[in-house]
Every structure is written in structure tokens, then in C-alpha cells.
Amino acid sequence: xxxxxxxKRGRYGAAAMAMLLVAGLLPMxxxxxxxxxxxxxxxxxxxxxxxxxxxxxxxxxxYGSRVEKQAPNPFMDDPFFRRFFGDGxxxxxxxxxxxxxxSGVIVDVSGLVVTNNHVIENMSxxxxxxxxxREMDAEIxxxxxxxxxxxxxxxxxxxxxxxxxxxxxxxxIGDLVLAIGNPFGVGxxxxxxxxxxxxxxxxxxxxxxxxxxxxxxINPGNSGGxxxxxxxxxxxxxTAIFSRSGGxxxxxxxxxxxxxxxxxxxxxxGVNMVRRPWxxxxxxxxxxxxADGLGLDRPAGSVVVSxxxxxxxxxxxxxxxxxxxxxxxxxxxxxxxxxxxxxxRPLGGTTTLTVxxxxxxxxxxxxxxxxxxxxxxxxxxxxGRSPLSGATLLNLSPAxxxxxxxxxxxxxxxxxxxxxxSTAARIGFQKGDIIMALNGERMKSSRxxxxxxxxxxxxxxxxxxxxxxxxTSVFPG
Length: 477
Hints:
Elements: E1 4-7, E2 17-20, H1 49-56, E3 59-70, H2 79-85, E4 94-108, E5 112-116, H3 117-120, E6 125-129, E7 135-144, E8 149-154, E9 176-181, E10 189-200, E11 211-214, E12 226-228, E13 234-243, E14 252-256, H4 257-268, E15 281-285, H5 288-293, E16 302-307, H6 312-316, E17 323-327, E18 330-331, H7 335-343, E19 350-357, E20 360-367, E21 380-381, E22 391-395, H8 398-403, E23 413-418, H9 423-427, E24 434-438, E25 441-442, H10 446-454, E26 459-466, E27 469-476
Antiparallel strand pairs: 1-2, 2-13, 3-4, 3-6, 4-5, 5-8, 6-7, 7-8, 9-10, 9-12, 10-11, 11-14, 12-13, 13-14, 15-16, 16-17, 17-18, 17-19, 19-20, 21-22, 22-23, 23-24, 24-25, 24-26, 26-27
């Protein structure tokens, strides 16, 4: 059924899980018409059929597959075993087909389909199935693990219909919504609920980190499905749930249409990665004690901890210890909410930050520009007798740091990819690990690391930085 789970503990309960779903639908932009509370049963909509019927044509099932070759039995290198089992026995490499199942939303009649990245991750073939049972091959245009979104393109035909992206900023708590997807692979299913909360930032699924929460029934298989408003417009892509049982318990999360639009626009521009504005500063959440000392009524905001020299934040006049309260007039309560709001601003313009500085509120303009490549990447894939064999290393620059979601100002050498089944993968090295030193010597470039591993050593002491923590391990040479 193609599902992933993310453990959630603490305030959500030791047994709670955040579960990535698989399914799909795509909505359209939300309207600005006034909302009215129904005063009688006659004023309540008794059927969502017109909305569901209109949206269903734009929701598809997404199927992914790839063939994995399993290693032959090592005993087949022994003549004794080959004598009894022959060349065609259990030592012959076998093939295993891995499949995933989810949903997708057609967002453009040219054939663009949005789904979750985890639905098609590592898949070599992708197909989509329409509500009328027709199937069509699709190619992957863009994958973005940071947002857990991906864009597909239907091969050889245009889409019959497309959902319009709503303005998620117009969504309000209490709005009626429909969730459309393919739960448990049973087929296209529509459920109804309300918007339970907005700007949820502690879901832990991706760095979209400003989820719409809904109580509409969402289950495994709904990943990539649509959350639509009462005009049939897409307000979010259903992505995760919190659950003790693995099924729906009324707490589901959708990536807002603002982030969906950013990913789709990048795909339309013909690039294979999402184009985000670069901020060039590191932030941390405002604590209750600091907020009280600043005279704020609640701990809402982000403190500037450090700035990248020459970056947009520094050039715009932002300073250390500034507290960012809003982006273009929209309140941002923490660094995650700021990251979403800033990332979805259009490149090429300027955004205005509301900042608390010295007890006064000031406006700081920040240019929206891409992170620069300040040095060549010099991609090096290591091999041979090395604990990092199978890892591809890159020289860090603002552009590389932005792509890998690393902290602003990171420098040195970073792991860009780790080949499946390689020595580096088996040891546990991960994409985004920063190689700080080998045997106590600082590594400044990918070529430095490559040259160091050419030497024969009895042991290798490898120091890396991961998620702000320094880790040192020793491996045999």
C-alpha cells in the first residue's frame, strides 16, 4: 500500500504515530466570499456531490514500481554447492518488484500532476489511473524531499481537467473541506470535515512546516491526495496523520497550496529542483523568558542568531538579536513558520520583515534572490577501502547548503548522495553530513578528502556535523 510512518512521542502520546499517506486530488484557488454560520437545517448543504463530481476528474491514483536485483547466494561460489544445485539454482540473482501506491492531483491541463515525494521516491516507472479506469504512463519532472512534493508529467496526452490552486492564506479555521484520495487502495474516496487548525509547525514530516490540520477522514493511501474547499479548489495536499492505530483518528495534515504552487512553478520553469529565495541567517525560537523581557505578551517570533556576510538578510539591514515578528504583515510565530512564509515569496522582488529591535518595531526589506554558487561543487564519488566509499562529496556553498536544508553559513565538505548498499550507507553516513575532519585534519574541499583516503592508514577517525551535533567515529583502514 506504500505507506511510511514517523514516530511521535511526548505530548502526542508514546504510541502516537505521524503516518505518511498515499492518495490524491488537486484543488483550486479559494474565494474571498463572506462566510456565514448556518442558522437552520435548511441552510446547511445536504450534499457535496457537485463539488466532489467536479474535483474527481482531476484526482488520480499514482502507482510506482522498480525492479530490485537481490544478490546471489554467496555459497554458490563454492564448487561443492554448484555440483548439487547447478548454475541455475538459488545462486542466480533474483529480481524483486517494489511497488508504491498513492494519489495525485492534476494541476494543469498540459498534464502536470502533483503528488507526495514519498509516493514515487526511488521508483523507476510511474503510472497514473483516472477515475474512469484509464491508465497512463508519467515521467517525474521534479522531486523535492524537503517539502515531500513531486511533480509528474503525463506522457502522450493532455489531462481531461485540472484543479485550480486556492489561496491558502484565505482559509480559516472552521471552513468546510473535502479530502479526496485512495485510502488503502480501495479506490477514489471522498470524506468531509473542517479545517481544525492552521500553520501547524511541529508535524515533523517535511520542512514545509506550516500544515493545515483537518478532521476529514484521512488514511494510509491518501498521500498526495487533495484537500479542497467548498468551491472545489485545492487548498492542500494530504500528507500525514497522527494516529495510535495506524488509521484515521481525526488529526490529518495537508501541505498548503502556497507551497504546492512554488513546486509547480519550478517544474514549469524547466528546472529539476525547487527555486527558493535565500535568506542568509540562522534563527531560533523565542523563549517565554526572553519574550517577557522584551515586553511581548507571548513567546511568538524568531531570534536572529547569526548572519551570512553579504547575504540578503545582512544586506537588508537585519542584525543579530533582532526578533522577526511578521513577513509582509503576516505573523510568524517560530522559525518553521517563518521558513514557510519566506520560501513561498516570489523570487525577484522584495519582502518586508517586521522586526523588534531595542524595544521598537522596525521594517526591514529583504531581497528575494537565489542562493549563489560561491565555489565549484567538485562532486567526488569515493570508492575503495574507505568508510565513505559510495558517498558523493560536494564543496559547500550557499546554493548547496540551501538545497540540502543546512544551516546558513555552513562551509567545508558535505555528503551530497549515498549509494544504496555502499559501505558509507551500511555505516550510516547520510546525505547532508558535513565532513569536518579526517584523523584530526580539517577538510576544506572534496578533493582534500579524496586525496586523504588515497593514503593507507591503520584507522580513520572521521568527524562530521549532523543537525548541529558533532559526531566522531573511528573505522579500520
